[in-house]
Amino acid sequence: MRTRTLPLWFVSSVLGLACEAPALLVPESGGAVTSTAVAEPPARLSSSASAPPPASAAAGTEALPAGEFKCGALTCRAFESPVAAFKHVLERTTPRVLALGESHAQKGGEAVRSTTSRFTDDFLPLLEGQATSLVLELWVSDGKCGKAKEKQVAEKQKVVTENQAADNQNEFVKLGEKSRSLKIVPHILRPTCAEYDQIQKAGDNAVLEMLTMITRNMRDKTRALYAETEKKFPGRMVVTYGGAMHNDLAPKPGREDWSFAAELDKLAPGKYVELDLIVPEFIKDNNSWRGLPWFESYDRDRYARSTLLIKMADRSYALIFSRSDATR
């Protein structure tokens, strides 16, 4: 079935372009799978959008300390592999709600393996038998609220999707398929017609209205799945996956309404874990990236050959993969 995509990623890209979506991710009546993964919105216009300068040939050759070590104002730990780092987080925190945020692939970066692909192939299998559900930041547009209205909402998003990598949505679909094969049931968002009305009427604030809608739907879906999990499979976790903003335990002032962390943390106090997955080739030297809490602690040259786990706060981590050209 040919589907129509309504992608949104506030900073640089989202999952996009029309694709053949399996029944796994669409309503029985058919419809469009819509990416709503949202990353950190820029606090101000950037004076520079260029990538960090190329690292030297000897980058990452320095032996890093064993165990935890100080990296700027934060605590870091180097691992030989991303899988080892991911296992470490699971073992240390035993989450009941694991909220994953990612850095999405950009146009021009297709040669670099995407975050979604890495999670699907390398991390997701580790959750088999531990997680019951995976809530994806995807929404379904099935025409029930009026095809004209849904098309108008799609038009409001075009201005923020120009830099997206074309295969992003296909990779989210593959993630859903893989999840189901591991008996981790994937779930998507289904906005109400009233929510479509709110977005349509928001005018220039349509994207901000979408952010609010996404946060609310992710929160409510996860809350319901957690309650169901507690009844049927107590002790297992619910996983959320999308852009790296809605999962923030410590959102920036003024952005609290765009994070579901505070509400979901109440479900199992001390067992909500925020984990952002970062591909270093996607990091830009601009205000949006520099505003992230781990940015000043990440030395691109020093950590090029290692997977780095940065602890930003209790139950809040950023896992930064090794740089591809440094591991060849």
Descriptive account of the structure:
The chain is of the alpha/beta class and 328 residues long. It has one domain (23-326). It has eight helices and ten strands. The chain has helices at residues 82-93, 115-123, 147-155, 168-181, 193-201, 206-232, 261-265, 287-290, and strands spanning 32-35, 68-71, 74-79, 97-102, 131-141, 185-189, 237-243, 272-278, 307-313, 316-320. Strands 1, 2, 3, 4, 5, 6, 7, 8, 9 and 10 form a ten-stranded mixed β-sheet that branches. β2 and β3 (74-79) form a beta hairpin. α2 (115-123) runs parallel beside α4 (168-181) and α3 crosses α5. The protein is globular, with a radius of gyration of 19 Å. The chain starts with 31 loop residues before the first strand and ends in an 8-residue tail after the last strand. The model is unreliable at 1-58 (pLDDT under 50).
Overall mean pLDDT? 79
**How much helical structure, as a percent, in the residues?**
25-40%
Largest sheet: 10 strands, mixed
Instruction: Give the ordered list of helices and strands.
Output: EEEHEHEHHEHHEHEHEE
Q: Separation of termini?
A: 39 Å
Structural domain tally: 1
